[in-house]
Design brief:
Layout: H1 7-12, E1 19-20, H2 34-37, H3 39-48, H4 52-62, E2 67-68, H5 74-81, H6 90-98
Parallel strand pairs: 1-2
Helix pairs in contact: 3-4
Length: 122
């Protein structure tokens, strides 16, 4: 199942939900590169002439989630900002939203539901 990280609750309280480490899969897991080189993001990226990371970031931005990707690579910085002159279509958004990889990592949140976390680091 996909984690919501209590996004709806935060919105109901006026708290802006933000993407921290928005390209990070589970640390050390087999899915850790899924949002960068995974089949889904790269196939959608080819359709739009974009990279896998751009697709992953764009999905979050289109959901209204501010993202702060970390990089010291100038080319990656340029790609990370190149999100605003194109749009993922409804089919792309549905596929990305329904994806079950990368797997949820981190601790359990309120009600015992898993949250994405940052590899359990507090």
């Amino acid at each position: 199942a996909n984690a919501t990280d209590d996004r709806a609750y935060m919105k109901s309280k006026g708290v802006l939900y933000e993407g921290f480490s928005p390209l990070c899969g589970p640390c050390g897991g087999t899915d850790k590169m899924e949002l960068i080189t995974g089949k889904l993001v790269t196939s959608i990226g080819k359709k739009h002439g974009k990279t896998g990371p751009q697709v992953a970031l764009k999905w979050q931005v289109q959901l209204g989630i501010p993202v702060i990707p970390k990089t010291s690579n100038v080319e990656h910085m340029k790609q990370n900002i190149d999100l605003f002159d194109w749009t993922l279509d409804a089919d792309d958004m549905a596929k990305l939203t329904a994806a079950t990889v990368p797997a949820v990592s981190g601790a359990k949140g309120p009600g015992g539901v898993a949250v994405s976390g940052d590899c359990g680091v507090a």
